[in-house]
Amino acid sequence: MIKTMDWRGNVLVLLDQTKLPDIIDFIACYDYRRVAQAIRSMEVRGAPAIGVAAAFAMVLGYKEIRMHGLSGTDVLKELEVFKRELIATRPTAVNLAWAVNRIWDMAVKANINRTIDSVDILESAAVKIYDDNISNNVKIGHFGSELLSANSTVLTHCNAGALATCGWGTALGVVRQGYADGKIKMVYADETRPLLQGARLTAWELEQDNIPVTLITDNMAAWTMKTKKIKAVIVGADRIALNGDVANKIGTYGVALAAKALNIPFYVAAPSTTFDFKMSTGISIPIEERNGDEVRIFRGKTTAPENIQVFNPGFDITPHDLITGIITEYGVLIEPYEDMIRQLARKLRRNIND
Ligand code: MRU
Question: What is the domain-level CATH number for residue 203?
Fold first, then answer.
């Protein structure tokens, strides 16, 4: 399994996902601005991966500020600018703000207490976010695999795999574990227009691991579900509201509607860092709107009238009543989601205070 990122103390090395699957190339980010650019341009993408990359970006930013000789509140003033810039890079995935705020809180505490080794503290916190992401994905994989029956054919949308995380993946973590447990015989991967995360990344990632995968275009999903005996749909998430509404890659909502109509279980796999406990429903989740050229132009070739008006939302919201279960590192949440998500929030608060 290829690594999406590698922290080397003073540099964050990112796998350039815009070039996959043709070229395997890496970007060395020596300052937080280069990481911000990588997140914006989707060289690194996927909710957990951008969160962790942004945490390391905060560490790079903090080191830079300290090198300029600033101290106390001046450090925090500068760091707050970096924090805002990083959070604004991509608005939908809440993991990003979560990770940045976590490092920010530590910086505030360290500066108030005038902690001498504050750089080390921040760095260890970012490394822990990275490590926790992998171990949580493995737990998600185990809980998810238990939901599947032997030799199932499943369908997934976008890429919620090792490439979207620090390793193993969420939806594809379930697939990996399910395959190891003899639960999965085939994965259908939606190509995921317009940026083709399904075709370029999911198909590639599963093929690398010798997991049987069949690529389909997005408009084939409903028919594939009906005719290929799909036993479950498993997707990732960018943000989950308190009532269980889920923001994920554009097209997820349509897949969920088709799954409901065909009586196929629809699962969302996501770590607790993807929950936004302050957002009561999905309606308020900010949806990133991307450049229309992503739809007008395909791999450098114009495929629509040059100036045609385009609507290009990067994500959609799947209402909780279409979701059979949300697979987290703490277990599977089911309706009534609001009760279960509040319980999860309490558990996380207890863990932080322990
Ligand atoms: O625009 P992207 O490629 O960052 O979107 C990714 C997705 O929508 C994933 O499904 C989501 O981030 C979950 S990744 C574990």
Answer: 3.40.50.10470
pLDDT in tens, 229-285: 999 999 999 999 999 999 999 999 999 999 999 999 999 999 999 999 999 999 999
User: Do 18 and 51 belong together in one domain?
Assistant: yes
Ligand 1 mean position, distance from CA 248 (Å): 6
To the question of pTM greater than 0.90 for the whole model, the response is: yes
Nearest to 164 by CA among 284, 56, 44: 44
Q: Whole domain around residue 224: which residue ranges?
A: 138-353
74 alpha carbon to ligand 1 midpoint, in Å? 35
Of all atoms in ligand 1, which is nearest to the CA of residue 274?
Answer: 13
> How many whole angstroms separate alpha carbon 98 and alpha carbon 103?
9
Residue with CA closest to ligand 1 atom 2: 46
Instruction: Tell the residue nearest (CA) to atom 15 of ligand 1.
Output: 160
132 is catalytic: no
Question: Once rounded to an integer, what is the mean pLDDT over residues 196-205?
Answer: 98
Q: Are residues 120 and 185 in the same domain?
A: no
Same domain, 221 and 336: yes
Per DSSP, helices labelled H in the chain are 32-40, 47-67, 73-87, 94-112, 118-145, 171-180, 203-208, 221-227, 252-261, 293-296, 337-353
212-225 per-position pLDDT tens digit = 999 999 999 999 99
Per the structure, the count of domains in the chain is 2
In terms of domains, do 32 and 18 share one?
yes
Which of 22, 74, 181, 238 is flagged as catalytic?
Answer: 238
**Residues 29 and 160 placed together within one structural domain of the fold:** no
The two three-digit tokens of residue 301, written as one number: 């070739």
